[in-house]
Amino acid sequence: MAAVCQTMVWCTGVMLLSGLAFALRHWRYLQLCIACLSAPFVLLYWWLLEESPSWLLAKGRYDDAVKILNRVKKVNGLDVDIDSLSYGQDEKVEDDETETSCGTTCLSLTRAKTLLWNIIINSFAWFVASMGYYGLALNVGNLVGDLYINNFIGGLVEVPAYILLLGTVRLGRKYFYIALMSIGGVALVVSAFLIVYVTDKGLNWVIITVSMVGKFAVSAGFELVYFWSVEMYPTSQRNSLMGVNSAMARVGSMISPAIADIPKFVTNVAFAKGIAPLIFGVLMIATSITALLLPETVKFPIPETIEEANKFTYNSK
C-alpha cells in the first residue's frame, strides 16, 4: 500500500510536467521550475526520513533501532514491548560479523549460486523496465497526435497500473510480473507495426491506445520488480544489491534516448519509427521469460542472511 501511494505522487508529477512544459515551452525554464519545486522536499527528507530498524538490527546497532522503534510506537499509539527485541541480539551480531567478513564479497556471492542468479535476472529486469519506461516516455514524440496530450495520457495510465499492483498481495509477485511484461511486450510489438503501416488518421486512437497498453504494463512492472527484488535480498546486503540493480536500471535509462531517437538518424528506412517500440517490446517479452526462474516471495518472510536468501528458488514452497 505504501509503495502504491508513493507511485501515485510520481504519476501525478508526470501529468503536471505536461502542463508545465506546455506553459513554459523552453527547456531551461522548465528545468529551473522543476528544481525550485523539488528543493524543499529534499530538505524535508533530511529531517523526516529514518534509517530502517531492520537494517540497524542486522548491523548490530541495537540502540539506534530502539530509538526509532520507540518513536514509531509513540506516533502510532502502539502498546509494544520494544525491549523484547534484545532477545538474541548478541547471537545476531556475532552471525552478522561473520557474514560481513566474507558474505559481502563477490567471492561469497559466487558461492551462493541461487542468490547470484536471482541478482543477475533481477538486474536484467531492472535494465529492461527502466529502458522501456523512459524510452516510451521519450518516444511520445514519435507517436501521432499532440506531444503534450500524449505525455499526459502516459502519466494518466500509470494511475490504474499502480493501483492494480494491490492485487499482488493475494496473487503473488512472480506471475503478476510475467503477465504484465508479456502483455506489454506484445502490445509494443503490435504498436511498432501500427505506427509504420497505419496511415489513416481516423485510426490514430488505436495506435495511441495500443502504445499506452505498453506504457501501462512497463510502469506497473517497473514498480513491481522494485519491491519484489527487496523481498529476495538479505537485509545486511540489501542496500548494496539494490544498488547493483539500480545501476543496471540507470544503464537502461541512458540507452533509451538513443533508441527513441533512431527515427532522427535512420531516415532512409521505412520502418524507422517502429524500431524503438519493437526493441522495447521484444526485451519485455524476454524479461517475462527469464522471470520464470525467479522465486515467489509473497508467502515468505524477508531473508536476513545470505544463507536464507540462497534458499529462494523458482520452485520454493
Strand-helix topology:
Elements: H1 2-24, H2 27-48, H3 53-58, H4 62-76, H5 89-102, H6 106-111, H7 113-138, H8 147-156, H9 158-164, H10 168-171, H11 174-197, H12 204-230, H13 238-260, H14 262-265, H15 272-290, H16 306-309
Helix pairs in contact: 1-8, 1-9, 7-12, 7-13, 7-15, 9-12, 11-12, 11-15
Estimate percent helicity.
Answer: over 70%
Shape: globular
SS strand fraction:
under 5%
> Residue ranges: pLDDT <50 for 5 or more in a row?
87-103
Category from helices, strands and their pairing = mainly alpha
Q: Which radius of gyration do the C-alpha atoms yield?
A: 22 Å
Overall pLDDT level:
84
- What is the count of DSSP helices, taking H or I runs of 4+ residues? 16
Describe this structure in words.
This protein has helices spanning about 1-25, 25-50, 55-60, 60-75, 90-100, 105-110, 115-140, 145-155, 160-165, 170, 175-195, 205-230, 240-260, 260-265, 270-290, 305-310. By secondary structure, it is mainly alpha-helical. The chain is globular, with a radius of gyration of 22 Å. The two termini are about 25 Å apart.
